[in-house]
Amino acid sequence: MTAIASIAHAAAVERLPFGKTSTGAMVVKTVLRNDLGMRVAAIDYGATLTAIETPDRQGKVANIVLNRPDIASYETNQRRYGAVIGRYAGRITDARFSLDGVTHQLEVGRNNMTLHGGSHGYDKRVWSSWPVTDRRSVGVRFRLLSPAGDQGFPGALRLTVTYRLMRKSNALRIEYVARASAPTVVNFTNHAFFNLAGAGAGTVLDHRVWIDADRYADVDARKAPSGALPSVTGTVMDFRSPRRLGDVLRLDDPLLAPSNGFDHSLVLRDAVADTPRLAGWIEDPASGRRMTVLTTEPSVQFNSGNGFDGGETGSEGVAYPRYSGLAFETQHLPDSPNQPTFPSTALRPGKPFRSTTILRFSR
Fold first, then answer.
1. To the nearest whole percent, how much of the chain has pLDDT over 90?
2. Topology classification of domain 1-363
């Protein structure tokens, strides 16, 4: 039984120590519990989701988020399990972009790209946090202050991320609000990997996936966007009818070659939304669990867990093999600052960035 599952008749919000970072910073875990028994846990380090516990069709509860056992393993991992990504989720080609006629140089990474903001992204920082509750939900709010020039991006940024677990339904809201002191670019997402059979319970190859996306971002061998957004029709990117993930991966399609699987941006059919609209769902036929995703974001970065190789072990004591979890990251498109045809990611003073993603769980 996990530490969270052992909390019987706990308060709706509980704060627990999670250890210290290598620099001595204290990390707190916040556990949320709703009236139906669903539990969600997150830590201050990276504003990271460490657990989402939901029942299967027999009522058996399991954590469906891949996670690490302690703070030391979160500090050293490269998968960014359940963390908030910023200042810019995804790749920026040639590690630079221009905004208002000024070119900004970012950290140069693999293939001359900047990925997820660089090596010291928001997933590698200790955020401040505090509980938030209202009549409909219990939650935790995280805040991070990013100074001007951080990671090479212009403008100071104040970012809050709130996880709200609804009291009367098994739904988790993720709310982002960001304000900048000067013109900048932003793109945030949560980097959770899900296995609806339970973290550590094998692969997600039997999961069925449906995504309401009619286009995808074309990329080259470096995964650099070309700027083209072709139709998914007739390609492996078409999930407009539910498909078993393993069946698609077996096709050995050239589009999957750069990542040895899915790690692609799929553009949602209604790319502009002021309120969360249906983006897709994932279900595990064996357990009966389904996760439905709604979002205000224009696209989803869909990743089939290609990078897992058994070298990292979760808190369940089980090594995570290839395809042990899939990511469904609601966000803007990669390299948008360099792609004028993509939805803009510019953020200017006086007009805050707001985004909401909802994860609904059912059987």
1. 93
2. Beta-galactosidase; Chain A, domain 5 (2.70.98)
pLDDT at 2 over 50: no
**Alpha carbons 14 and 236: distance in angstroms, whole number:** 44
pLDDT at residue number 320: 97
Per-residue model confidence as pLDDT tens digits over 223-281: 999 999 999 999 999 999 999 999 999 998 999 998 899 999 999 998 777 899 999 99
What are the catalytic residues?
A: 191, 329
pLDDT the model gives residue 31: 98
Q: Where are the domains of the chain?
A: 1-363
185-194 exposure pattern, b = at least 16 Cβ within 10 A, e = fewer: bbbbbbbbbb
Query: Which residue bears the tokens 């030391």?
Result: 72
**Would you state the torsion angle of the CA atoms of residues 44, 280, 310, 198, taken in this order, to the nearest 10 degrees?**
80
Q: Are strands 128-133 and 137-146 parallel, antiparallel or unpaired?
A: antiparallel
Contact present, 153 and 185 (Cβ < 8 Å): yes
3-state class of 151 per DSSP?
A: helix
Report the distance separating Cα 59 and Cα 39, nearest Å.
Answer: 14
Cis peptide before 322 (omega within 30 of 0): no
Mean pLDDT of the chain, nearest integer: 95
For residue 270, the model assigns a pLDDT of 81
Q: Which residue, among 56, 44, 58, 40, has the nearest Cα to 2 in the 3D structure?
A: 40
How far is 176 from 199, CA to CA, in rounded Å? 26
3-state helix, strand, coil in the chain (%, to 5): 10, 40, 50
